[in-house]
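[Archive record]
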Amino acid sequence: MGGMANLTAPGAGRTPWFTRNWKWAVPVGCLGLIIISTGFVSTIFLIVESSFRNSDAYTQALARAQANPQVREQMGQPLNPGWFVSGSINIAGPSGKADISIPISGPKRKGTLYVVARKSAGRWTFETLQVEVAEEPERIDLLQADQRVPVEQ
């Protein structure tokens, strides 16, 4: 018994992991939460945007705008849809309702395609289908292509 026995338990006197590493653990944890939140919001946005883009009302309205000679003349070709479609589309089987605005742009100008439509017996009927071209005082009415509608301010 010549030596003195170690009376302390192994690991005693060591500080906890978080206390030793908080200076990098807190920022990494916060950054992780920000990345997860951003990913969640982006996923929701993409789901909503793709549901608009895959609807029949959207595709039919965009096709009519792209085929319209007045729209092609004022905006140029190709006419492309933009992001951030706004409004609502409600479909229940063979019936539904759509009220959306679609940002569109061509090589010459930008604009907005306004769509109000009803779906009955599986077919969409457009009530409003107008293109507002930037810096133009009147909208192009796609339901009556040769008629212009004043822009309400």
